[in-house]
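so my prof wants the structure for this chain in the tokens format not the other one, which i didnt know existed until like an hour ago. anyway here's the sequence
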Amino acid sequence: MRILIIRTDRIGDMILTLPMATAIKHADPSHTVIMLARKYTEPLVKLCPDVDEIAIFDEKSSAFELAKQLKSLKADAVIIPSPKRKLAMGAMLSGIPIRIGTGYRWYSFCFNKKIYEHRKTAERNEAEYNLRMLAPLGIDADLSELPSLQKNLLPANPISEKEYIVFHVPTGGSAPAWGADHWVDLAKKMQAKYEYPIILTGSSQEREFLLIMAERMKHEGVSVHIHPEGSLLELAAVLLNAKLVIAGSTGPGHVAAALSAPTIGLFPLRRVLSKERWGFRGKQTVNLSPEQSLQPQCPECTNCECIDSISSEAVMATARNLLHTQ
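here's what i got, hopefully its the right format
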């Protein structure tokens, strides 16, 4: 079969979708896996040997234009893990025989194989929800499946230091951020214990904020550098070679975990943002969230601030365990 997976959102979403390609190949290597993705995430998809073909999604295209593109891919089945009206309509209009998607949207009539699971209840990780969508194809996927990524395709590490720790402080608005005071305090503790320099990563839009963070850390005697934004694969190389990566709920944290870098994730309790739903998945990954007993209003709160109750001591204790196992 030619199986098309459509995932047109951000880095973390794509990392949690790639295990579907690996599971399909494990079920039958003769299947052809096609991924429709944004141009932004294409470099990550190219790292996955289980994806045979990549098509680029044009956000400006109409449902009819999308249908024409999908028809040209000659897929036998299409799976849409993240439901959007235009994607569903395009899939139906393309005439792809098997169309798998949610049964809980007004446009679910576009799918002829419906999945009845409410992801907002966060009973599973996003990757597990995605893998369960393979069932209509007769694929009983291992829900612990991780994506296969070819690390040898990454560029040379642009960081000159041989050993360092990465802090990815910003979350890009996708989730509440751990407080700046916590990051500064953690950097000070890390410097005192390990003497590794701290590398701050982020986008060019976040550079001014990172400069402020770097100055605060330097004031505390921390050796800190800002990694200038380069390509997505250069960032992946920085993460891969780190002694440790610490990040809020954001794409680079997912990339680090998927590359098997020692990674700590920081997540709030609110269900739709929680580690249970969006936690990093990797062989050396620990996801932290606040103590439920200290936040009795969670996980149904609307003004989500509980992440600041994660202490730098708790992160430091987890970091020690990960670093000592290397």
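also thought this was worth mentioning. The chain has a mean pLDDT of 94.
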